[in-house]
Design a protein that fits this description.
Layout: E1 18-24, E2 29-36, E3 45-46, E4 50-57, E5 60-64, E6 67-71, E7 75-79, E8 85-89, E9 93-101, H1 107-112, H2 132-145, E10 149-150
Antiparallel strand pairs: 1-2, 2-9, 3-10, 4-7, 4-9, 5-6, 5-8
């Protein structure tokens, strides 16, 4: 059993939103993420499970329900299941641990990500964007599972969003 898992945020070139599964089990999912300035989650999305962010480095602007918050390094953000939320990165980058409890939200990365073929760094260009077919299949699957909905809450973080920097496939 591998009880300790090294997180190496500097092991790969910064190319936008990046995520690394640290644990993916029945009870929880833990993802280490590098998120560049201007990247943001879709406004007012809702998960059917609790989500927590632990900000290791950088700063995130958050919308939780109708309230706006700032989370800096060494901050734990708790987002109860069903809470409309979003984030936008305000600093050059943010290093964040994402926890989903219980596990249920690995579908997007599994369906749209580029699988690793080894434990070494891939060559430049190895990460490929999802195909239109993958995106359609993912959209249909999310719809079928009803795992995420959007609320009618106003977007309090629009000023921090950079649509060109935001990764369209981030979890």
């Amino acid at each position: 059993m591998n009880y300790l898992r090294k997180v190496d945020f500097d092991a790969y070139e910064r190319r936008g939103y990046e995520a690394q599964y640290l644990y993916n089990g029945e009870s929880a999912i833990v993802i280490g993420s590098n998120v560049p300035v201007g990247a943001a989650a879709p406004p007012h999305h809702i998960h059917p499970v609790d989500q927590l962010y632990y900000v290791i480095e950088g700063e995130m602007q958050l919308q939780l329900g109708g309230d706006r918050h700032v989370a800096g390094a060494d901050t734990l953000v708790y987002i109860p299941a069903g809470t409309p939320h979003a984030f936008a990165v305000k600093t050059q980058t943010a290093r964040v641990l994402n926890f989903y409890v219980p596990a249920a939200l690995d579908l997007e990365i599994a369906m749209l990500g580029t699988p690793a073929t080894s434990t070494t760094l891939p060559p430049p260009g190895a990460q490929r964007p999802p195909t239109a077919e993958q995106e359609h299949a993912f959209t249909q699957r999310v719809h079928d599972l009803a795992t995420q909905t959007m609320s009618a809450q106003p977007d309090l973080l629009g000023q921090y969003r950079d649509d060109d920097a935001a990764h369209p496939n981030m979890p």
